Amino acid sequence: MRNNGKATIREVAREAGVSIATVSHVMQGKASLHTTETVQRVRSIAEGLAYSPNRVAQSLSSRRTKTLGLVIESRIAGRFTTNPFCTAVLDGFLECTSEADYQVKIVSLRQDDLEYVANCIGDGSMDAVGLLAPTVDGPLITWARTARIPNVLIGSLPDEVRLSGVDVDDSTTVYEVVCWLIALGHRRIGIITGPPTQWSALRRENAYLRALEEAGLEQDPALRYVGNYEPSSGNAGVTALLMADPPPTAVICGNDSVAIGAIETLHKMHIRVPEDISIVGFDNHEIAKLSRPPLTTIRQPLHEMGMKAAEMLMNAMDHGGVLAPSVVIFPGSLVKRRSVCKPPERSIRGGQ
Amino acid sequence: MRNNGKATIREVAREAGVSIATVSHVMQGKASLHTTETVQRVRSIAEGLAYSPNRVAQSLSSRRTKTLGLVIESRIAGRFTTNPFCTAVLDGFLECTSEADYQVKIVSLRQDDLEYVANCIGDGSMDAVGLLAPTVDGPLITWARTARIPNVLIGSLPDEVRLSGVDVDDSTTVYEVVCWLIALGHRRIGIITGPPTQWSALRRENAYLRALEEAGLEQDPALRYVGNYEPSSGNAGVTALLMADPPPTAVICGNDSVAIGAIETLHKMHIRVPEDISIVGFDNHEIAKLSRPPLTTIRQPLHEMGMKAAEMLMNAMDHGGVLAPSVVIFPGSLVKRRSVCKPPERSIRGGQ
DNA sequence: CTGAAAGCGCTTACAG
DNA sequence: CTGAAAGCGCTTACAG
Fold first, then answer.
1. Cα–Cα distance measured from residue A125 to residue A69, given in angstroms and rounded to the nearest whole number
2. CA of A308, closest CA in chain B: separation in Å?
3. Which of B53, B99, B125 shows the shortest C-beta gap to A56?
4. Of A57, A277, B2, B272, which one's alpha carbon is 20 to 30 angstroms from that of A288?
């Protein structure tokens, strides 16, 4: 009796009068290896001793931890509380892993240098990892390129053929949203982007530009504001975009929090949403439908993405720990609520 | 070179021409044990080989995993996404652990029987655990009573002297809120409680009853609805309370989601908030200030509670793995917004 | 069907 | 200041 007083395999073996190998077999459910009598004896002794295997010892011995990591870069401010993206993915991840008797470790990186990152992730305590919305050319992506363990990026996937990941098809979705706004009659469409350190932000901006171009609309830099996914960039962004001449009649925001920040500022300026300016969010976070007006936004299947990522990782572990580069893209979908309508007859500035 | 191709302590030792004990010492920063020259040689070899210790082996050998668990009972629906409580606590937990080079494992229980729970938590892969809002007499509390490893309950703390935990002083806060409502002139105050499986819900209800009693007000069962922290219990709850005679002029809700559900239903019934009925929430979740009207609610310092829990656990590990039963109670605070005002001159039913 | 033995990659007294 | 050795609690060929 050591180890916090927990029984060990050795004690079970002794009491049952068998070898530890036998106990190991029985505990692993390899019952067919032994006589029914042996199996039952071992089982009842194990139960009597409240024995359960030490997972650390199992891991070291079998070279499998049955633990997946979920890694967050240091720059992601506030982590889970402020980032519905992380939270929803985590839930999906947990749902999938707990069924398979895998555990999950949250790795919250505190530095950006590659050595630190590699040591954290490669400490042997995780079989494979999901990387949450890695930064463009950041430490996570750099690490992933030469990683020794299976890994999948979750969101903000770069166009790199050697990496694996799951993401939403934000490009198509944003393109379609812009086309829809144009069809509604909007000609001056602004965008408050996410930070350029995220591929998703760059991709969405490109999709936006492409839609404008194909519609023969001018791509006015004054209609683009570089935000950071925080509500404050909604406040500042919409204020900046209003300076454009003529000002936008619709604005696409980096996420729902940004959209709510934008609406808040517009309210204060007595500019009506959507009558004067239409607003589109991103994420379909719980707050989207509580917003006044309720927010038209883009849903990402984050829960499903988390599940898929976990599944890919566990699957790789079942196949020798190798994950062939593979990418799974989920469709986004537009959730229409009340923050979008036709553009006003005349511009809020008195019209063009 | 095995182990995913990672260098082991053995290889570093061989290259450096020292014993593995020496490498171990150097890696642990026990530099004073050796000559500067040895230390530097080992360090540079280790770096050249990109060596970092295998955490699993360290754990088995040292009997310390430097990993904390955060455990969620199976009944908590939706986990993190739908439960701002869990999310905020997790962030606090992470903030504290990552500084101390501890890792955190999320344990999402799938069954309620004690044996399963004990095996999950007691698998040796965690040094100590935080238990999220355990159910009254549920498996987590049962486990905690005889646990072999340090543990602290986080929220919903029962009155049990042998257990450790952190919680908010919801009792005092609810009492004060009720007194405040009474001072505003309210005489018929309803409550939509949390589920009776949570101590916090029972405690809040008791505090509510006590405040009424001390003010000499009737404790009308028709003014109490047993909810479950879901928005739908706000819808159903407020509908039920409205049947009381006379109906309430103020309602205290189990959390902010419930309050928002209640407001939604009242809107549909064309009952004004707060002019006809005042509404109080709980949590000060991000949605509270987005609500129309913005929600008067009770803030719990969840982030701080998470940090404190992690600190207590790590501290216990630094003291032989024993945690003297200790309880830390944080004050709650009332966040006044616009969903509360004086009661209407006459009841919405035509008055008493 | 069962067990002895080697080994997973470390840490930690202990001896020198 | 340094190293040989035992041991952490298991798994897994391998031999019988």
1. 9
2. 17
3. B125
4. B272
- B292 vs A contacts (CB less than 8 Å): 292
Helix (H, G, I), strand (E, B) or coil at B297: strand
CA nearest to B55, candidates B102, B10, B123, B95: B102
Contacts of B96 (CB under 8 A, 6+ apart): B306, B307, B310, B311, B314
Residue type for B261, please? G
| Cis previous bond, A196, omega within 30 | no
Nucleotides on strand C with an atom closer than 7 A to protein CB? Answer: 1-5, 7-13
User: Helix, strand, coil % (nearest 5) of chain A?
Assistant: 45, 15, 40
CA A9 / C1′ C6 distance in Å: 17
Whether omega for the bond prior to residue B331 falls within 30 degrees of 0, making it cis, is: no
> What tens digit of pLDDT does each residue of B278-305 get?
999 999 988 888 888 999 999 999 999 9
pLDDT, tens digit, 9 for 90 and up, residues A206-227: 999 999 999 999 999 999 999 9
Rounded to an integer, the average pLDDT of A137-150 is 92
Length of chain B: 352
CB–CB contacts below 8 A, A to B: 133
DSSP summary character for residue A346: S
* Residue ranges in chain B modelled with pLDDT below 50: 1-2, 350-352
Query: Which of B8, B62, B108, B146 has the highest number of chain A CBs within 10 A, making it the mutation to test binding with A?
Result: B108
CA atoms within 13 A on the CB side of B174: 30
Task: For residue A150, count CB atoms less than 10 angstroms from its CB and return exposed for 0-12, middle for 13-18, buried for 19 or more.
Answer: buried
